[in-house]
Structure formats: C-alpha cells, structure tokens
Amino acid sequence: MTAAPGASSLSLDHLTRRFATHTAVDELSLEVSPGEMVVLLGPSGCGKTTTLRMIAGFIAPHAGDIRLDGSSIVALPPHRRDMGIVFQSYALFPHLSVARNIAFGLEMRRAGTAATNARVTEMLRLVRLDAFATRLPRHLSGGQQQRVALARALAIHPRVLLLDEPLSNLDAALRQDMAREIRLLQRGRGITTIMVTHDQTEAMALADRLVVMHDGKVQQIGPPEALHLRPANPFVARFIGGSNVVQGRIDAGTRLVLADGPALALAAAYHGAGHCATGHVAASHAIAAATLAVRPDSIRLAEPGRREARTEGTVELCTWLGATLEHVVRLSPGVAILARGPGLGPDAAPRHAAGTRVSLHWSASDEFLFDAGDRPVAADAPHFTAAHVPPPDFTSPPFTPPSCTPPNCTPPNYTRPTSPRPT
Ligand SMILES: Nc1ncnc2c1ncn2[C@@H]1O[C@H](COP(=O)(O)OP(=O)(O)O)[C@@H](O)[C@H]1O
Ligand SMILES: [Mg+2]
Predict the structure, then answer these.
(1) 235-370 is classed CATH 2.40.50.100
(2) 234-287 pLDDT, tens per residue?
(3) CA of 52 to the centre of ligand 1 (A)
(4) Phi, psi (5° rounding) for residue 2?
C-alpha cells in the first residue's frame, strides 16, 4: 500500500442506519488508512451499499460519525465531501459524450476550461479511451463504460474513491482484467478507496483489508490471507474460502458427533474447548455444541478403511473443472462435504466415481472449531494429531509438546492425547 502525498484517512465510528424497523447497518466501525484499499464483502442485503451511501452523503446515518482526515463530514452535502463514486450501474449521462461525462464533476466545481480539458485528456489516457472522447455511452462496451465511470470519479482528485460493485455488470474474463486495472490504478495513484462487492474472489484480489459483513454487522476485518487462514466465525469461514460447515457436539474433545448420526475424528484435540474465547475451560470429557469448518481444498480423499481418516462417506458427484477436481461426498442424509483437489499435473487428485466409498482426510491446521456462540475454540496443541502421530513414549526422554501457539490464545495445559482414534 503506497499512499499518495496528501492521501486522506477515513474513519467510520459506530455508523448505524435503519429503514423502518430494519437495521441495515449496525454500529459499523472502521479505520481506513491513507492510500489503503478496503473492500466491504458480504451477501446481498447485508448493508454494503447503505454504508457507501452514508460515506458519500446520499443518506444520513441515524447514529455514529464519519471523519475524513479527522474532521466529521456527516453534516456536509455530497458535493462538499470530495468523494469520487462509481455506481454499480455506472450512472453515466446518456446524452453526454465520454469527454463531457468525465468533465462533469470538474465543470460543477468550476475548474475552468483549460484545467478541465487538460484533466479530461489525462483521464482519457489513463483509462485508455483517448480514441473514444466524442462517443456516447450507449456506443461503448460494458468494460469501456466502466472505465468512463472510473475516469469521471478520479477526475475531481477525490480524497476517497468509492466503488459499488464496479465489476458486477461485466462478463467473467473482462471482470478479471478490470479488477487488475482498478488495483493498478488505485495502487499507482495511492488513493484511499472503499469498494463494495459480494464476490469473494474479486474482494481477495483487490483488498489490502477485507471487511466481512452479515446482516448489517461487521463479522471480521483483516488482510485477505488472515481471514482465509483464521476465520473469526463460521459465517466468515463459509464466505471466505467456501468452507464446509457442519454442526454437532464435541465428544471427549476428539470427536464431533453430527446431529444425524455420524462422528468425525477431529484432527486436533479440544479438551480446553472454549478456553480462548470464553475464558472458561470445559471439563476434559465435556460434550458441547460446536461447529466445524474445513475448506474444500484442505480435504483429501482416499480409499476407505484408513486408520487416520477423519470420516468416511459416499461420493455423490465427481466434477472435473480443468485446474481443479471436485467431489461431493455424502456423510449422512443431511450432510454433504465438498472436496477440491488439483485437476491437472503430477499432483492431480485421484478421481472417485459416484457411488464409491471414500475416506476423508485433513490436517489440524486446516480445521476450525467454533463453540455454541460461534467463537473460535483453540486446539490443545495445534498441528499435533493423535491420529497422525504415534502416542509419545513417556518412558524415554520427556515428550515436549509442539510450541506452535495460535495468536491471542494461551494454550491450556497440555493433555496427553487420547488414542486410539475412532475411525
Ligand atoms: N431505501 C431503502 N428503503 C428501505 N430499505 C432499504 C433501502 N435501502 C436499503 N434497504 C434495505 O437495507 C438492507 C441493506 O441494503 P443494501 O445496503 O443495499 O445491501 P447490499 O448493498 O449489501 O446488498 C436491505 O435489507 C435492503 O432491503
Ligand atoms: Mg449493494
């Protein structure tokens, strides 16, 4: 992240907006650094556009504050906030040429003819539309219209750039090209940017930091990799990385018993279930409601009967997608698991036909357990897998537990692993 000289910081402080009795945005707080690109990500209706419209000044918050470089802007009308906005529909003026569309904000600000023309030329070059200056928007492709909208937003030297689903009207190939273009432009100019999308891949590709939203509430904020590797709750696990999410009850700290029968052998042990998030340490053999999340790409399939298997199931669907190979494996009438492996090359995952029994495998670092309140549960000793590692020999030199500790967690006292594991 390289901030342009004079780039602005933006601060949202407990921003809240209701529509009738529905709270569309619920106490959203966020600090955006100068030159940073933050992406609001969440399903349709979670409050992304409402947040952007409050920042732009089109709707007023019911509570909370918005500060630009430390000064509150909630009382300012949109045109005095110096924000460049690209709407989902682009909202180009259909009767104005490309050049006039780009010039619009400058003319409104009475920038002067010479300065306006110079800036329009610069913007046309920036978005590679020099040859299209006199065209009307309806004679442009979707991608070109998108670039005009971006040029129009950037022309006014905005302090913050706001992008609402800027790629959603483009086809898949163009979307990837435009995502790269936006990122290069944003990075090159070091402009503070907030983008909104429901598309996880797009968000991961563009964001310095992601804000995952659900039902108007922030679920987790952090760099894409951090959210991918350490989701804060089952919703984030499902939304980032498309994790399989199953609910059950923890048995003896080592098994997750699903509601409709089958049990999964967990890759790590959780005798201190709840230790991290709730501050209480459950009894060693406590049974507690829990949710398990495992990303499809973390799951390997093998023939049944393997001792180190997490569980077994029946392949329902095998789909080869070129670079990846996907299997849907049914564990029970109510639970199906998606597994994804490489589809090509020397590491290509083996194919299992529909109807085949398979065992499912994943490692401790790929499994995320959450308590009944959807808070992360720390494993006794991450990366130690009773099923993978033979029980330690306590008669010879003393066994040293692995030292790896998850951030923000004090591991509970190391508990001798229970074995053998159920298979
Ligand atoms: N002008 C409005 N009047 C009533 N409800 C609205 C209005 N704008 C948004 N909402 C509601 O607020 C919620 C959030 O909407 P929105 O911010 O547009 O979601 P997103 O952009 O994440 O899809 C939705 O339930 C939506 O129906
Ligand atoms: Mg929206």
Answers:
(1) yes
(2) 999 999 989 999 999 998 889 999 988 789 999 999 886 444 433 344 444 455
(3) 11
(4) -120, 115
Name the residue ranges covered by the structural domains of the chain: 10-232, 235-370
Long-range interactions of 225-230: CB distance < 8 A, separation 24+: 228/204, 230/368, 230/376, 230/406, 230/407
**Which of 40, 41, 50 has most ligand 1 atoms within 8 Å of its beta carbon, as the pocket-test mutant?**
50
Task: Quote the pLDDT of residue 177.
Answer: 81
Nearest Cα to Cα of residue 105 among 51, 154, 55:
154
Write out the residues surrounding ion ligand 2, Cβ under 5 A: 49
Question: pLDDT at residue 399 above 50?
Answer: no
The CATH number that domain 10-232 falls under is 3.40.50.300
Q: Give the phi and the psi of residue 279 in degrees, each rounded to 5.
A: 85, -5
* Residue 84 CA, ligand 1 centroid: distance in Å: 21
Give me ligand 2 centre to Cα 166, in Å: 10
pLDDT digits (tens, 9 = 90+) for 106-162: 998 888 899 999 999 999 998 889 999 999 999 999 889 989 999 999 999 999 999
Q: Does position 395 have pLDDT exceeding 70, yes or no?
A: no
CB 159 within 8 A of CB 128: no
- Please, what is the average pLDDT of the chain? 86
Centre of ligand 1 from the C-alpha of residue 204, in Å: 24
Ligand 1 pocket at CB < 6 A: 19, 22, 24, 42, 44-50
